[in-house]
Amino acid sequence: MVDTEQLAAACWSTVSLSEPSWLELSVLSGISGVAGVDEVGRGALFGPVVAAAVILPDHACPKLIAAKIRDSKKLSSSRRTKLAQQICTLAIDWKIGFASTAEIDQINILQATLLAMKRAVLKLRVQPTICLIDGNQSIKGLLLPQQTIVKGDERSLNIAAASIVAKVWRDDLVLRLASKYPMYGLERNKGYGSQQHLFALQQYGPSPLHRQSFRPCQIKC
């Protein structure tokens, strides 16, 4: 069993370093079945919030470090796509979960984010030994050991992998939807509030897939 107190201490003890101090190489060394869980799209105006849960084998860690894995936001689109393919090939198991715009509007974005994370974990065929959750909010009702890690995508290889897989999956979804709603420039902004996107909302109003509970989408044309 993972010592969650030791893990929590390790998570909080390290400041930002030029090279990440990956938990899988220190306090989690030799522990199998660690699931990293992260989300993307929390701040977007359009589309679902998406989470991924990823379990990596030990032999994947040096390969991903050599490939310069890092937080998905710090990677180019092409690098993310290549890394996502590598991660999914190497992973023991990985799954996607999401919460729809209707769910976001009904239960708020924080609860929808945690719901997407929970759905991703529960889809895993392999039951994790522990779930490492990016951020400071644990997943309610998840009957598995879990540890929240602030800036977890900079600390845990499994979380960084989940961040990349979730980002690529959501971007692909938004790109497919862009042709249905061409006026919002979704192929460029991926549903986030760019200047062009905000202008289009003023001009055309929100689509059925915009988050009506978000202030920029509360526009009547």
Summarize this entry quickly.
The protein is of the alpha/beta class. The protein has helices at residues 4-13, 60-66, 77-90, 101-107, 109-123, 157-178, 186-189, 195-204, and strands spanning 34-40, 49-55, 93-99, 130-134, 146-149. The N and C termini lie far apart (57 Å).
What characteristics describe this protein?
5 strands, 221 residues, Nucleotidyltransferase, domain 5, five-stranded mixed beta sheet, alpha/beta
Number of strands: 5
CATH superfamily: Ribonuclease H-like superfamily/Ribonuclease H
Unreliable spans:
14-18
Strand order of the largest sheet: 3-2-1-4-5
Label the CATH architecture: 2-Layer Sandwich
State the CATH topology. Nucleotidyltransferase, domain 5
- In terms of DSSP E residues, the strand content is 5-15%
- State the helix count: 8
Indicate the CATH class.
Alpha Beta
- Helix coverage percent: 40-55%
Describe the sheet with the most strands. 5 strands, mixed
Question: What is this structure's SSE topology?
Answer:
Elements: H1 4-13, E1 34-40, E2 49-55, H2 60-66, H3 77-90, E3 93-99, H4 101-107, H5 109-123, E4 130-134, E5 146-149, H6 157-178, H7 186-189, H8 195-204
Parallel strand pairs: 1-4, 4-5
Antiparallel strand pairs: 1-2, 2-3
Helix pairs in contact: 3-6, 4-5
